[in-house]
Amino acid sequence: MKPEDFKILQQELDLNNPNLGDLQLQKLKKQLIYCYDNSPYYKNKFDAAGVNPHQFIALKDLENYPTFDKYEERESQAQSLKAHDHPLGMHLTCDIKSVNRISASSGTTGTPSFQGHTAFDRSIMFKNFARLAKITGLEKGEKVMMAGVMSMWVAGIPTIDCLMEYGANVIPIGGLVGAQKVVEMMTFTRPDVLVCTPSYARVIIKKAKTEMNVDLTKIGVRAISVYGEPGGSVPEIVKEISDGFGGAGVYDMGGGTGCLNPIFTSCEAQSGMHFIAPDHAYLELYDRATKTVLPMVDGAEGELVYTALERECGPLVRFMDGDKVRITLKPCSCGLPGMRIAILGRVDDMLLIKGVNVFPSAIRDVILGFEGEATGNIRIIKHSDAPVIDPPLKIKVECVGNPSPTQKAALKESIEQKIKRQLRFKAALTMFSEGDLTIEYGATGKMKLIEMV
Ligand SMILES: [Zn+2]
Fold it and tell me: pTM value?
């Protein structure tokens, strides 16, 4: 990071800076008033909860405001489609004619949710992205290959928009052309940076090595920015991706629904993701069990509640996205102050096995510990949408190479024991040789860890 950039970021990210607190209060109040005055939906919602943003005096007052969740969002969007011919929800706060782009995010239920952006909203995204770029060392003019799913999904075209505004030289190939084509185009274009999901980065590495005889360590990729899956913060996966590209830096970027993303990125220290937008998004930590807002102290765990600041198009006030995180407030070894998060999992994905809460990503982490024996490609078998599972939990596991039946049985036994010891539930594994368990992706290019049968 350039010293002058570091200095600016130091101020922008410092949550102890009293000016930041004042700025957040001012912007939050303005955002709430904007929603109240420009959307009958919000006016009714706030009135029903007995809150009036014109009387908002302290950040803590936000705790009295009603939360928003994806079910309410979908309902609001279904209504606006009927009443106003657009899917941006009854909570739309601006003139539909001023909307500049519609993006979508996938839902676990299969119904997408939609976000609109005005030109001003996009300008805030550009500011957030520029901070991410500085932390990840992205220089103007560097060649950035976008190999994620390049579409209306939030991480697709919006990322390209940010990259171009920042001044990167974008190579928008998109992951849907297939890993082979991506590798081929890498040899022709020599990108400095690659953007994709962590699972796709692994597929690219494998494809190049085993089927194409292309040495990706010689391509000159300096950094890989990954998103959308927990792998970007899992040390084993980060190392594998870094090694696959000859020691390139791996950065995990993230966002929060309704915010002007990206709002998180990891740095070279790889110790959680820095919250890079404290002046553009207000975060709360929530405990579903007690229905209370938790203090943002070092080590605290809870669900993040997101409120974008300064958003013009349909802000989501207090959106509960279901991201369970652990907060770190200790200074990072990179020197940047502020808050970092580690994503523990999504509340929606959580499994409940004999009273034990388990995230699929935690199961995968245990299996990734068997480096050189298991690839980390797994599939958890479920029979219904319900989180409650009767043990044993059935899991398909891919081995490295093609071990003998005896070796497979031994590995199955070791992993099952480790799961029992570490995660406290009984698993029943089925072992597959490498390549026999195909990786499946959702519409947004995220790897699926759950298989419904
Ligand atoms: Zn750092």
Answer: 0.88
